[in-house]
Amino acid sequence: MISREEVKYIADFLARLELTSEEEKKYSQQLSTILEYIDKLKSVDTSEVSTTFQVGGLFNAWREDEVKNWDKDEITLALSESELVAGQIKVKKVL
Fold this sequence. Notes:
Elements: H1 4-14, H2 21-42, H3 72-81, E1 83-85, E2 88-90
Helix pairs in contact: 1-2
């Protein structure tokens, strides 16, 4: 079991958190449970299981930038509905 002193060390030194004594006790129990589960996983024989890095079908979604010319109506509409900053169209923040 992880001691409360170890939890205090992790919370203070690694995460800069101040914990109450109740939180120290709670996290000590929770971290101990997690480490016990990891020990159980270590005992499982995975020698016959092939290595898998991801299963979601990820692929490189990057593409080359392409310059596309707008027609005059699109340019006029974009400029009339937008604010210009240093000659560029200001857009709303995404994040």
